[in-house]
Automatic annotation (TrEMBL):
Cited PROSITE patterns: ACT, HD
Protein family per UniProt: Belongs to the GlnD family.
Gene3D superfamilies on file: cca-adding enzyme, domain 2
Species name: Actinomadura miaoliensis
Domain text: Has four distinct domains: an N-terminal nucleotidyltransferase (NT) domain responsible for UTase activity, a central HD domain that encodes UR activity, and two C-terminal ACT domains that seem to have a role in glutamine sensing.
One annotated GO molecular function: nucleotidyltransferase activity
Protein name, per record: Bifunctional uridylyltransferase/uridylyl-removing enzyme
Cited SMART domains: HDc
Region: Uridylyltransferase, residue numbers: 1-344
Primary gene name: glnD
Amino acid sequence: MALVHGTSGGEIEETRSATGTGGTTDTARAALAAARAARADELDRWLTGLLARERVPHRDAPARGVALLAVGSHARRELTPGGDLDLVLVHDGHPEIADIADRVWYPIWDAGLRLDHSVRTVTEARAVARADMKAALGLLSARPIAGDRALVGELRAAVLADWRADAGRRLAELAGMCRERWRSQGELAFLLEPDVKEAHGGLRDVHVMQAVAASWVASAPGERVRAAHGLLLDVRHALHEVTGRATDRLVLQEHEPVAHALGLLDADVLLRAVAEAARTITYAGDDLWRRVERFCASRRGTGTPRSLPPTAETEARPGPAMSAGAGTGRAPGRGVARGVERKPVGDGAVEHDGEVVLARGADLDDPALVLRVAAAAAQAGLPLAPATVDRLAERAALPSAPWPDAARDALVALLGAGGAAIGVWEALDQAGLIVRLIPDWERVRNRPQRNPFHRFTVDRHLVEAAAEAAALTREVARPDLLLVGALLHDIGKGWPGDHSAGGAVVARDLGARMGFADGDVRVLETLVRHHLLLPDTATRRDIDDPATVQAVTRALEAVPGRERETLELLSALAVADAKATGPSAWGSWKARQVAELSRRTAAALSGGTPPPAPVLGPETLALARHDGGAVRIAGSRVTIAAPDRPGLLWRAAGVLALHRLVVRSARTVSSPSASSRDTAVLDFTAVPEYGTPPDPAALEADLRRMLADRLDVAERLERRARSMRVRPGITVPPPRVGIVHDASSTATVVEVRAHDRPGLLWRIGQALGECGLFVRAAQVDTLGAEAVDVFYVVDSQGRPLTDPDALASVRRHVLAALR
């Protein structure tokens, strides 16, 4: 079957909305909501009658000094067929309160209703709420049914006042209770048999959000959260009706009946709808709890709550506002934050009060902005402010096919942040940005995996696999292809048929859309098509049989000339995929088998021609006639020609770092000139770390001063480093420095793989210079946030290093410079 992208929803059934089949679903859900409302009204009338019928001798109206309150689901008018009736009888010391209580409670029990009840004075209820979190949460949402309204008002005012006065302690306690519940119940969006009430992202979390809003630390849940809550409430209602029991766990055998009760097409559509709702609630809750944490921390520190982060509107102008999207925003009564430091974390992005927001000068017409800001947040280990995400979704340009290099690099940098990328990716996904960037993502979004080995939906598994792959970027020569391959390896699960074959077609089209070169697109296609090749072969075939290794090598023939590179990518992808699947999908035996099969296949592929030393084009080499030194700056390209000498590379890179330029690529060669000395040609591609590019005249002047030995680059860089406060950011794999033997007969080849940072090339070059080495040629590339640098070095006599001790010393010296 041919796969055709870009088809409309009417052409492919799989693209139907996860919320169901239009009018049928709306009708079914409206009926459930109407049934709950009718039941609430009926119960209120009945309970009012129970209290009104009671006549106590010598009292005109027992309702005076007595009130009946609903708490819990009936207070919210959300009582489902299996839900408990929670009631509180409040009184002012009424002498006949015990008799009144019996005459209210017993008819309820006789009717077969499950009842949770209590009898309190205002003082008693207030004391219980102060000591018991469950009681406090119930009274915060209490609704009067009958009786003395003044008594009800007195109680609610007292409980609210206590809740707000002690918000720092109570909210910290509430956060701890939620974390414990989440650990016990798991994450609703990714469970095949979830508890729709208690799991993370379930109904209980929305009730907690409402309690937090009552403290004035955050706003009440917004429209999207309320809609998600309504869907889960309908699921719970349907579950109670289908089973006839008070159960909140959606077990497998109830999926189809509940789906049909809601007018949904099938069980998978039900699970996708539940996952969508749960992730909406979880995302909003994450933002809310960050606000709570800042509030609690400020109370512990100064006793005065800090202002909350700015919303999209307050980034542009002062004044109170409420965040859009997830529904959490500025707490009522709080002004705009004053004196909170805004620290740059990337081009167009700044850190503000623990979140990443847009810089004031950010160019919303830049198609790479969305991914670059997301990458900056992930690399810094910070969340994206929800209002900033909403602003990006509403106003920012997105890359068109083929993506510009900056957008593709930003995607790779985002994925390369590992676990920190997951929350940022979720923020983009909640705003609808992911499916606009990667249209095929819609097919796997919230798609359940009915497999006990899988912990996540398909889309979350792909993001988790990319996060696992980020820890393996030092193992491969092309970390960008590993990360994107991990993100796309199961993309075919949104199509009928073999997901590996279908996914290869999708990956080929997406690779081209992202702007990868044709050869890289073929590698991505091969990675997706054969992502199960190594683990399946290693565990199901005899690896001692020569035919087993031959089967693997035949699969690699799809990428002639890049077989070994693809093999190492497949090996790393196998590890990332298994670890993202679940703990039972990867173990020591499987790891040994895959590693051994990879080793034997690599041996079978040995004997190829090593890559040639990098060579520059004729235009660049033409500068070599300037024996005294030449500098040419054209946009992001900086070319230097000067007599070769130790330290030339790192000093030039240092000057670029002084001007806050990040080296994305560098090519250097030494070319014979008319004089007795060789001329080195350095060709850099450098972009601003953030903000606008430096003045080309100032940059050229400093480069010429460096060439004339009138600029102490090391001292200037060290002085700048001492004056900067560097945020630690995410934890990254340690750098790796290797000597590539047999790659060149005229030079020693040093390969460095490390996480990119300002001045990295300067540090590496300085270390090589301190070892007395000349850089004869270099090929420097930054792929996302990962640097893959290769240096062809010789000693002072122009010869490669051969002594093992000298080689080990060079490796140690470069590693020390990177730490």
